[in-house]
């Protein structure tokens, strides 16, 4: 049994058995930047991609009602997708219940928001664009600078063959987005917990792209299994310090079909980015647990699961028991771009005076249940990895209690009757939410150990990316419905296993996701920059 099993179990029990280093205090004055900084790199500003597309609704992005399409990317589309997902869109200045509230008006502590949620607001995902000759720019490797909404050139020359060979799946693409995570960007705050949070962040970022792209007929199908060490070398990073989590091949305008015969990787010394990044922290700490779990997930990185390998680990069928049917979900007619710009965490602003309607709950559950990271981890049309449970606090026409969401029947199965508010609050570690005031609290659960048994330690990234994808879909849906949303990792997992009776099934509750109405008229200041 690999270290990923041990790590997942330690994460699950951390509310009762603290993980090392116990008592760790972050040095905030020496914190790293929220993105990589390559001094002197040539910048190419990206278009903002404000292409009018009335069909690009959240409904289409989440459910792809018009069927799978594979339209080509263009530079404006790539620019639009990156801006709406990870670019800086504005500054948070609203009054909320987080402890950072007093510092938000200080420019040095400004909190620039993005379309994608991120654990602790740290945005640790680095996006690289490896562009071959089929695209609009001179071939090379670029880094997406979120601060400038620009591509920064790190290497010149066609190295797309390196990526194709690292993928080893016969792709003919020559444009790739590569997602890296420099662990220190998160670990300076969360130490050993880092891997758990960042692998969800990767899923959240991928899912923003998937929703954004699907709404416009484009495809985002990431590979999670590939020669990670080869790509880390290409990008000039140490794989122990920066993991390469996903590779997304892009169909590009003008390079369809057999017109392009992709070149193999050139012989001779392996190409690599020589430009070095500047780290802001004077002292960078290596956490043994992060190092070990990263080593475990890299070890068999090229062992892509065979089709059907995940079958023993998918969500189990719903248990027997009375069902509460849910009404048809209202369509999510808001545009994806607008929904992402309106998306934000409620942080203490839930207000139960207006209950959630059953239709709103139905739409949120249906959307979240449809989320997956796709790509080489997917079994198209097969059962999902995650199952949703829901604690109903205040939903019109649905009695308070804990339920299992039965996606196939679009119904709820009662697990435990009675108001769950006290249980939820007692098992939440932070004080920034009154969970009882949310209309409902949804909990995605995955059979983590079964996934690791089925596909090996790298499956840990798949589990967490799936949960991140569910979370981002949840947020985007709440935003499209004009509701407040929030997700949190700070809860006692073991208590949730007991409350939902999951010990026998091996399902691990991995996140709590809150939805409901917010207090009307709470103070805010609009500060939009994109
Ligand atoms: C994987 C993940 C874990 C998170 N965990 C928590 C949490 O434990 N508590 C919390 O209040 N917010 C949590 N959040 C929400 C983030 O704090 C939030 O997305 C970030 O601060 C940016 O704020 P915004 O969502 O308003 O843009 C989490 C988000 C993600 C994606």
Question: What's the SSE blueprint?
Answer:
Elements: H1 3-12, E1 43-45, H2 58-63, H3 75-86, E2 90-91, E3 112-113, E4 125-131, E5 140-145, E6 150-156, H4 160-167, E7 175-182, H5 184-190, H6 194-215, H7 228-235, E8 242-249, H8 288-299, E9 323-325, H9 336-342, H10 358-369, E10 386-392, E11 401-406, E12 411-417, H11 421-426, E13 440-446, H12 448-455, H13 459-480, E14 484-488, H14 493-500, E15 508-509, E16 512-516
Antiparallel strand pairs: 1-6, 2-3, 4-5, 4-7, 5-6, 7-8, 9-12, 10-11, 10-13, 11-12, 13-15, 13-16, 14-16
The protein binds flavin mononucleotide (FMN).
GO molecular function: oxidoreductase activity
Organism: Streptomyces albireticuli
Domain Nitroreductase: 341-517
Task: Identify the CATH homologous superfamily of the largest domain.
Answer: NADH Oxidase
**Helix and strand string, N-terminal first?**
HEHHEEEEEHEHHHEHEHHEEEHEHHEHEE
> What's the end-to-end separation, in Å?
47 Å
Count of DSSP helices? Answer: 14
Question: Would you count the extended β strands for me?
Answer: 16
Class by helix and strand content? Answer: alpha+beta
Provide structural commentary:
It is a single chain. With 530 residues, the protein is α+β, with helices and mostly antiparallel strands. It has two domains: 3-91 and 102-257 and 284-299, NADH Oxidase; 311-516, NADH Oxidase. 28% of the residues lie in helices and 16% in strands. It contains 14 helices and 16 strands. It has helices spanning 3-12, 58-63, 75-86, 160-167, 184-190, 194-215, 228-235, 288-299, 336-342, 358-369, 421-426, 448-455, 459-480, 493-500; strands at residues 43-45, 90-91, 112-113, 125-131, 140-145, 150-156, 175-182, 242-249, 323-325, 386-392, 401-406, 411-417, 440-446, 484-488, 508-509, 512-516. The strands form three sheets. Strands 9, 10, 11, 12, 13, 14, 15 and 16 form an eight-stranded antiparallel β-sheet that branches. 52% of the residues are buried. The model has no long low-confidence stretch (mean pLDDT 96). Flavin mononucleotide (FMN) binds at residues 113, 117-121, 197, 200-201, 204, 344-345, 430, 432, 468, 471, 487-490. Residues 261-271 have a biased composition (Low complexity).
